[in-house]
Amino acid sequence: MMNNGYEWLRQNMVENQIKARGIKDERILEAFYKIPRHLFVGPEQRPLAYEDHPLPIEHEQTISQPFIVALMTEALRLKGNEKVLELGTGSGYQTAILAELAGHVYTIERFEKLSRSASTLLGELGYYNITYRTGDGTRGWPEEAPFDGILAAAASEKIPPALLEQLGNGGRLVIPVGDVRGQQLMVVSKDARGKITEETLGGCRFLPLVEEES
What we know:
Elements: H1 3-18, H2 26-34, E1 55-56, E2 62-63, H3 66-76, E3 83-87, H4 93-101, E4 104-109, H5 112-124, E5 130-134, E6 147-152, H6 161-166, E7 167-179, E8 182-190, E9 196-204
Parallel strand pairs: 3-4, 3-6, 4-5, 6-7
Antiparallel strand pairs: 1-2, 7-8, 8-9
């Protein structure tokens, strides 16, 4: 498919899957218009890259449905200079969205091959405000904490305590919580005094956030 075909599909995705469902932040919409989602999936999946569902990538992982990526990103309420932690780099699409909208992104992926591939592609696309790590996302990135925003692209049965500790005052954590029987997309906010509040954005379905054994 020619690039102009992908551009049309990308515009249609933004208008009908994201904007039409209530995502209004112009910075988020511009990021989705700009980033070539088809480059973050394998060649056989590229014709499907802008459709309204997740797609498989290597290591039996997935790239999330476009609207869910937008919804989770919007929930962080990024203004442009934040330090953000991402759990689950995957192929790097959500990472690219965050890099467009935040000051610096720290992203953790447990599969080294995925992390390397994402780093290479994101570098080719001109994203240099990203730091990569391979490891256990449930432990966060303590030496870089606190974070203004934390986004988990995998579900945990309960919110990992390390993530709450590493969330800065005034920050927001977006994470799917639950198991195979059901998950809810949670937004955890920490106010200026460190008080925690939670809200639910609705049901979702993510692969599990895997905790490595000590």
